[in-house]
Write a structure and sequence with these properties.
Layout (H helix, E strand, L loop, with lengths): L1 E3 L8 E4 L6 E5 L6 E2 L6 E8 L5 E11 L4 E11 L4 E7 L6 E9 L2 E9 L14 H13 L6 E4 L8 E9 L5 E9 L5 E7 L17 E6 L27 H17 L4 E11 L1 H12 L5 E5 L6 H7 L4 H11 L3 H9 L3 H4 L7 E6 L7 H8 L6 E6 L10 H10 L3
Parallel strand pairs: 1-19, 4-10, 14-15, 14-16, 16-17, 17-18, 18-19
Antiparallel strand pairs: 2-3, 3-5, 5-8, 6-7, 6-9, 9-10, 11-12, 12-13, 13-15
Helix pairs in contact: 1-2, 2-3
Length: about 400
């Protein structure tokens, strides 16, 4: 396993009180915002006095764990001569591998940001039930018994001279109709294919019609994307919480496999060059697909969702709030809730993954926090790497996409 570092361009600024309100601070970059032993986590900043008078302020740093427990606090009086700059450094001892919330304040100005420490050493203990494998084998057998009934409709207005775009519809688990957009290179031949999985509630999009080197399929799972007008599942993540056999993600995870079935049915697709990608829910879908279907050659999930529910719900408000609200409505004990969710937890499926993985992480993500990204990633035993985007929240930087393409090309 290896780490690929990105440069931190944090850009956290604050304005401090002074004679002309021109005493300011900037958080200084540290690689990708992640620290590795024996280095201790530290926050460095640069105070700038652009006035003609000496300025003095009190700089405060507070540090919390990612689940909002106070860890330490620092305070330092700083005097900056007129027209000068003053570097400051706060260093602390991280009690454990993980991610830490930093709040840097001076007078009325505040900068909030996350830093990490030894993320590959984060331990998220598995809570898989003894019948996890049997549970998913049964679901797969049910899916295999459903005739997919593939339907393809050419969309000339979305196509180009090098790629034809089709609307695809097919049957999945339980006879549910799912759909997606498929791009096929016009030139005859055998092509690698990228299967794209969408985020939670994402609006459907078409593959780029001008990429002649890959086939591509962007899937809309049941009730989402292209299928949302016929959604019967309400808020997907809370649907069927009282029964693992009817929980929304049992069917949705099988939709991921059906997408692989579809691309394997295409004569222009290379069976040895099927790649998968997706962000947020799509990142979770990517990892789940790799665990449940070993036809995938390599995959590139980013900011993945649905991993380590107990920790996840302690760190963020969403999706914890709707899930816990629904739990209360149904009268489900905590033990039963987390037992059901364990069947759909990426950290429990991750050990089944056999293909290479490259993961993208948004260091400032408050939707799928980095801690939860690594909960699943650290339980993958195959070849893997990750890229941290220190300025990004629930996203990755533009440099992710060419890196992803190069990663896939390594396995052609």
């Amino acid at each position: 396993m290896k780490k690929i570092a990105f440069i931190l361009l944090c850009g956290c600024f604050g304005v401090l009180p002074g004679a002309a309100q021109e005493l300011s601070f900037e958080v200084l970059p540290h690689a990708d915002g992640v620290f590795y032993a024996p280095e201790r986590p530290a926050v460095e900043l640069l105070l700038t006095n652009s006035t003609a008078q000496q300025g003095t302020t009190c700089v405060r740093l507070t540090v919390e764990t990612d689940d909002h427990r106070p860890l330490c606090a620092f305070s330092q009086q700083a005097t900056v001569p007129a027209g000068a700059q003053l570097p400051l450094r706060f260093e602390f001892q991280a009690p454990a591998p993980g991610f830490y919330r930093c709040t840097l304040a001076a007078a009325d100005s505040v900068a909030r940001f996350n830093i990490g420490f030894e993320p590959e050493a984060i331990v998220s203990l598995g809570d898989a039930q003894p019948d996890l494998k049997e549970f998913w084998e049964e679901a797969r057998a049910e899916l295999d018994a459903v005739d997919p009934c593939y339907e393809m409709t050419l969309l000339p207005e979305k196509s180009s001279k090098v790629r034809e775009i089709y609307l695809v519809r097919m049957k999945s688990l339980g006879g549910e109709t799912i759909s997606g957009y498929y791009a096929r290179p016009v030139k005859r031949g055998k092509y690698p294919v990228i299967v794209g999985y969408m985020g939670y509630g994402s609006k459907p999009w078409c593959p780029d019609p001008n990429n002649p080197d890959f086939a591509e399929f962007v899937l809309s799972v049941r009730g989402q994307g292209l299928n949302e007008p016929e959604n019967t599942y309400g808020d997907w993540i809370t649907w069927g919480l009282d029964d693992k056999m009817h929980y929304y993600y049992r069917g949705a995870f099988m939709d991921l496999v059906r997408a692989i079935d579809f691309v394997c049915s295409r004569e222009e697709v290379r069976q040895d060059a099927i790649f998968a990608e997706g962000g947020s829910q799509g990142g979770a879908f990517t990892l789940a697909a790799c665990a449940l279907d070993h036809r995938i050659r390599a995959a590139a999930p980013y900011i993945p969702f649905l991993s380590d529910y107990p920790d996840y719900f302690r760190i963020v408000h969403w999706p914890a709030e709707p899930v816990l609200r629904r739990q209360k409505e149904l009268g489900i004990p905590d033990e039963e809730l987390y037992r059901t969710l364990s069947y759909f937890d990426i950290k429990n499926l991750a050990p089944w993954i056999e293909c290479p993985i490259m993961m993208g992480v948004g260091l400032q993500d408050e939707v799928c926090p980095p801690h939860t990204n690594f909960s699943g990633y650290n339980r993958i035993s195959t070849e893997k790497c990750y890229r941290v985007f220190p300025r990004c929240g629930h996203d990755v930087g533009p440099e992710w996409w060419p890196a992803r393409t190069e990663f896939f090309k390594k396995y052609l």
